[in-house]
Write a structure and sequence with these properties.
With 370 residues, this protein is an alpha/beta fold. 38% of the residues lie in helices and 14% in strands. The structure holds pyridoxal-5'-phosphate. Pyridoxal-5'-phosphate binds next to helix 3.
Length: 370
């Protein structure tokens, strides 16, 4: 008789829920920080043509090194804070989630620690769990900033193999100042510091990218994604820039031919349309700033945001507020500290619907409380 449970999940996974925001079919979806504007007909046609060409050779495995794609990504990053990045500095995978899991597989593992500062991206502890890395979460300040002395002390105490920090942070929207990256990279020694810039393109003007200091820190990794500003979440393409020895290490853990020929073709074609796909970023930033101002005017606490979403609070019963918004056809996200909610920035019309719904829900709650 086997002593294994059925199904024979390892202990650490028993009772775990699969990650995922609810995918509800409601008219206004403001819960996963997607770009509300899809690719244009011209971009879609070009992507389709590139995929059609790739289809003619789908009997063959794809370019395992994704050379053309990584070169195109280097060129793109060199226009957004990157300094002389080349193919050797770039790595790509199926979403930046896969990139970060690979980082943990290569640099984490039993007897090693991964560190972040909460509130932080809820997937990080899962990469740690799945790579058998010990997970440690420090704290951010009340305004969601990072106290640099405390952060340095935490890194020195924990001696993490990998530090993971989004900038702008999810779920708070807070960007890290450049000194923070320097402090963390220096304190980490030979540990890897991953600055997750999934929302990098939405940062306010004057806020630098960590890419600018990449040449100064061999242990710095900057991850990006085509899922958010690039309006390409469905294609699954994430990437990083780092020193070549870090890229080399990831080759050891990646699955063979992990990036399909279809994915590579679609992403390359999308990159040719970068100015157009990114064309709505400025509008989304303006809408974001307007949303922050409106929520503040309603008396909510609102975190400053450099991303395409806004975290606001506090509500007495956030699940009730969330549900009442869903009932009005508006889906936002229950995440962040208790009492807070996160809304992704949609089109002006979608934001109008959100504001209207939230106003109604509040009036109802106040009526109910009276
Ligand atoms: C959305 C998001 C990502 C992107 O994930 P992909 O796998 O590239 O779609 C990465 N990090 C954070 C913090 C995010 O919110």
């Amino acid at each position: 008789m086997s002593a294994l449970p059925w199904p024979p999940l390892r202990d650490a996974l028993v009772g775990e829920e699969p990650y995922g925001a609810p995918q509800l079919d409601v008219p206004v979806q403001l819960n996963t920080n997607e770009n509300p504007y899809g690719p244009s007909a011209a971009a879609a046609a070009d992507i389709a043509e590139a995929v059609r060409e790739a289809a003619l050779t789908l009997n063959r495995y794809p370019d395992r090194e994704a050379v053309a794609l990584r070169e195109a990504l280097a060129t793109y990053l060199n226009g957004d804070g990157g300094q002389g990045l080349t193919l050797a500095n770039l790595w790509a995978a199926n979403g930046s989630n896969e990139v970060m899991l690979q980082l943990l597989q290569a640099f984490g593992g039993p007897g090693r620690r991964a560190l972040s500062f909460a509130p932080t991206y809820s997937m990080y502890p899962e990469y740690a769990r799945d790579s058998l890395t010990e997970w440690v979460a420090g704290r951010r300040e009340g305004d969601f900033s990072l106290d640099l002395d405390a952060a340095r002390a935490k890194v020195l105490e924990v001696e993490p193999a990998v530090v993971l920090l989004p900038s702008p942070n999810n779920p708070t929207g807070t960007a890290l100042p450049p000194e923070a990256v320097q402090v963390l990279c220096e304190a980490a020694g030979n540990g890897i510091v991953v600055i997750d810039e999934a929302y990098g393109e939405f940062r306010r003007s004057g806020v630098p990218s960590a890419l600018e200091v990449l040449p100064q820190h061999r242990n710095l990794v900057v991850t990006r994604t085509m899922s958010k500003a690039f309006a390409l979440a469905g294609a699954r393409l994430g990437y990083l820039a780092a020193a070549p020895e870090i890229v080399d290490a990831l080759r050891i853990v990646r699955l063979p031919y992990h990036l399909s020929a279809v994915t590579q073709a679609a992403a390359l074609a999308a990159l040719r349309h970068a100015p157009e796909l990114l064309g709505k970023v400025d509008e989304l930033r303006e809408e974001r700033d307007a949303t922050v101002a409106w929520l503040r005017a309603q008396g909510f606490q609102v975190a400053d945001s450099d991303a395409n979403f806004v975290l606001f609070g506090s509500v007495a019963d956030r699940h009730a507020t969330w549900q009442a918004l869903v009932d009005r056809g508006v889906l936002i996200r229950e995440t962040g500290p208790d009492g807070w909610l996160r809304v992704s920035i949609g089109t002006p019309q979608e934001m109008q619907t959100f504001k209207q719904a939230l106003t109604e829900v509040r009036a109802e709650e106040e009526g109910g409380a009276a």
